[in-house]
Amino acid sequence: MSAAASKAPALLRCETLDIAVHECVLVAGLNLALQPGTLTCVLGRNGTGKSLTLHTLAGLRNVTHGKLLLNEREFAAHTRKDIAKQLAFVAQDIEEPFPVTALECAVSGRHPHIDFWQWESARDYELAHAALAAVDLAGFEQRNIATLSGGERRRLAIATAFAQAPKIFVLDEPTNHLDPQHQLQILKLLRSKVAEGCAVIMSLHDSGLAARFADYALLLFGDGTWQYGTVDDVLTEDAMTRLYRTSIRELRWEGGREFVGI
User: Fold this and answer.
1) Measuring CA to CA, which residue among 151, 110, 153 is closest to residue 129?
2) Where are the alpha helices (H) located in 97-149, listed in sequence order?
3) Helix, strand, coil % over all residues of the chain, rounded to 5
């Protein structure tokens, strides 16, 4: 994260935001600012509200308490198309109900930028092809997505988000179903988006990868409490032990850190 990024206005911000389900508040009074040029990881046990938090930050759930602002304007002040031009959301599990090809899926990321009744342009297809190649899916353009493996579908979903060309990426477990090679490939690609001035927030289960690739971490404890700060300040043995309710030890190696249960 650059010094300039730390002083830039937030692309996405929430104030005293509550995340609740069935009257159970999982996250209470969340204050978060996603600035350009930053990557934030969300960590927590199963059921602590990671997906619900990301859905809420993407504007897909109603805000019942607190504020959610996109470019310092409340979400309600933006049209859905305007939001889609600025923010891409990748869900944890995606089912495509129609028999489309990988290229058709990827180019659908361009739809927020296309006027009503307008067809995709050569430039739109160029961006879709580039996005597929970036996630190691070159040559898959005419493959029906029903024939793709779980990992290939995951990479296709991320390619579609890349083709969308937003400034904000909200991703729910982007490394889900991926082998180690493609996990690192996707995380490095997300870091390249950060270097271009985008803001990325994503959930992960691997705290070692969070420590390696993220600038900030948001820890969700499931009882309404949360902790947010730089990865150096937040990802500690004590915090990880509390977060996962098991004894955690930190192992350092040249280039990164790992957290293991003992």
Assistant:
1) 110
2) 102-107, 122-134
3) 40, 25, 35
Distance CA 152, CA 221 (A): 32
47-70 in b/e form (b: 16+ CB < 10 A) is ebbbbbbbbbbbbebebeebebbb
Domains in the chain (CATH in brackets) are 3-98+168-261 (3.40.50.300)
Residue 49 φ/ψ region, left for φ over 0, alpha for ψ in the -120 to 50 degree band, beta for the rest: left
Write the DSSP symbol of residue 223.
Answer: S
Residues 6 or more apart whose Cβ sits within 8 Å of residue 92: 51, 172, 173, 176, 203
Return the exposure string of 143-180: e unless at least 16 CB atoms fall within 10 Å of the residue's CB, then b: eebeebeebbbbbbbbbbbbbbbbbbbbbbbbbbbbee
pLDDT of residue 13: 97
Q: Which secondary-structure segment (H or E) carries 84?
A: helix 80-86
Rounded Cα gap, residues 125 and 131, in angstroms: 10
Band of pLDDT at residue 3, cut at 50, 70 and 90: very low
- The string of pLDDT tens digits covering residues 29-46 is 999 999 999 999 999 999
Q: Could you read off the pLDDT of 7-66 as tens digits, one per residue?
A: 688 999 999 999 999 889 999 999 999 999 999 999 999 999 999 999 999 999 989 899
Chain centroid to CA 132: 18
Cα(215)–Cα(22) distance, rounded to whole angstroms? 33
Pair 186, 174: CB distance under 8 Å: yes
Residue position matching structure tokens 């495509």: 96
